Give the backbone structure.
Amino acid sequence: MVTTNFIKKIVDKAVSEEVHNAFTRYSLGEFVKEPFTLKTDKNGLIIKGGFEYVNFFHQFLAENVREPVQVEGVIESVHDLGSDLKKIGVQYEEDRRFGKSGKKFVLSPQKVSPETYKKMVKEFFADYLLFNVIFSGGELKLKKKTTPKLGSPTKDFIKIKVPDTLVKAFQTDYLFDIDSSPFKQLAIEQTYAVHDIDVDLKLLQKDANLARKKAFRSGEIKRKITVDGKVVKEYIIKFKV
């Protein structure tokens, strides 16, 4: 099974470019993240998380759905994605990003094959995948279809309903450090503490923005897990990404 959870990849010492990019926005200091919450219902799981999980939840679905899905929303990017969207057969219209560089690629409601959805996620993962997905037995839905202001709270920015058929895969990927006993509600609270940023000084003189993106950050993640109102685990994950 392909791991899509960037926290698990850090634990597994399998840091990828995607994991690195998830931390480029952080400077030195501590950052209390929005809670990651789960509830069980008769059909599976209902999960809510902050903005940082948007692309990774898309990646989880793209790796696991086996039937056509319906997509609707936008992809925001500083790059021109038009020709690539046409190549994979996705219908879109272009619009501008208000107060930001780049464009919005507005996706009209349309059904795409699981292969096309996987290509969309893979090819545009470095961009902002701000579109909803309806799939067999479940749904991925965003609170807003625009990128939030840097530093603004994004609690419950994304909501995903995972059907019974995908619950085991989700638990393996995102609840990797939690006992598999049944639960009704679960919350994961995390604080990122960035202690050091290793910047290429030569690149910094040429292109400060690129140097920031390429810099390696090290520190720790304080992770607290609460199950049905009881704290069951609290520990620290050290990282260098």
The two ends are 23 Å apart (CA to CA). The chain has eight helices and twelve strands. The mean pLDDT is 95.
